[in-house]
Design goal:
It is a single chain. By secondary structure, this protein is an all-alpha fold. It has a single domain, classed as Growth Hormone, Chain: A. Helix content is 77%, strand content 0%. Helix 2 runs antiparallel to helix 6, helix 2 packs parallel to helix 8 and helix 2 packs antiparallel against helix 9. The longest helix has 32 residues. The radius of gyration is 18 Å and the shape is globular. The chain starts with a helix and ends with a helix.
Length: 240
């Protein structure tokens, strides 16, 4: 598919997620909405690796880790206090680093470099897993990457597409009247479910390395697509 055709497809998907009201201005998010859906799928992939392939820990869903930490402290031997603490700390460090980096630049400009950095961290986790390194080191790299992702997603602020936390999404889906936002919420929930399904199937039947490899490939694609979109946007701005 040619770059222009790909961008057209992504913009069409974005328009379905954020339809323009008659006479209204188009949404300002460009191709970000479908890219965030892909990142939501990635969240499901890496959480499947964390829970099923490592120490029963989440690397994306920090709410779950806080609960797991409580269970582990209460004496559940299937859960690891160290793994939950490391995941929480690494996630916080990743989010803090991303927060500092983006203070001097717009969120849109920081999106692709931070997603690219996340891809590098997940690739590092893949290398460690393939080399038989300790599980906690893999947890740290994955949680660092998810901290980066959540910080930049928080900053861009696309409604209903948080990529990890779905409790409020499900609440809004059930409580609010049906409308365009409901479609976004359903797609977001489905993306996380499908990511967890794919990650779980790969991890259980083929090993965590395959799920991590899929996550790396998707993150590289998201970063590259965001870069191409940004370059095209800057080119149009220079010509105008």
């Amino acid at each position: 598919m040619k770059p222009t055709a790909r961008r057209g497809t992504l913009r069409s998907l974005a328009a379905r997620l954020f339809p323009t009201e008659p006479g209204g201005a188009p949404h300002p998010y460009g191709v970000l909405p479908p890219l965030l859906i892909v990142l939501t799928f990635v969240s499901g992939l890496v959480d499947a690796v964390g829970f099923l392939g490592l120490d029963h820990v989440f690397v994306a869903n920090m709410t779950g880790n806080v609960v797991f930490l409580g269970f582990a402290l209460a004496g559940d031997r299937e859960l690891s206090v160290a793994a939950s603490l490391l995941a929480l700390a690494a996630f916080a460090v990743g989010a803090a680093v991303a927060g500092r980096l983006r203070r001097g630049a717009s969120a849109a400009r920081m999106f692709e470099p931070l997603v690219a950095a996340q891809a590098i961290l997940v690739a590092g986790a893949l290398a460690l897993a393939a080399g038989g390194a300790g599980r906690l080191a893999v947890v740290v790299l994955l949680a660092l990457g998810m901290g980066l992702q959540n910080a930049v997603v928080h900053r861009v602020g696309v409604p209903d597409l948080t990529t990890t936390v779905l409790t409020r999404t499900l609440t809004a889906l059930a409580a609010d009247p049906w409308g365009p936002a409901a479609v976004r919420r359903i797609v977001s929930v489905a993306a996380l479910l499908l990511g967890a399904l794919a990650g779980g199937a790969l991890t259980l039947h083929h090993g965590a390395r395959w799920a991590l490899a899929a996550a790396v490939a998707l993150l590289v694609w998201v970063a590259f697509t965001a870069y191409r979109e940004g370059a095209a946007r800057r080119g149009r701005s220079d010509r105008s």
